[in-house]
Design brief:
Layout (H helix, E strand, L loop, with lengths): L1 H29 L5 H15 L16 H16 L10
Helix pairs in contact: 1-2
Length: 92
Amino acid sequence: MAGRWGRTGRWTLALGLGTLWWWAVLRLAFAPGSGVLEGAVAAGGWGLSLLPVHCVSKARAAGATGSDQWMRRFREAWRRRRGPRLGPTSGA
């Protein structure tokens, strides 16, 4: 039962923070008296949306590849797409 309340609480918190963020953004866009508070809430919410991209180092991230692995995989995919390379034909 505690797990169910935990899930409900997370959804409620996410919905409340999302509503607060949209309120700040819309107030900044349309209200003539908006100011620092709304700007801070809007900028903070936008900054938090970028946070998960930078939480784990690339070396420890599951499924992440280094730059050398990326290039190797790119070359393999390019070769598969182009098919086998044929050398110059001799004869006729």
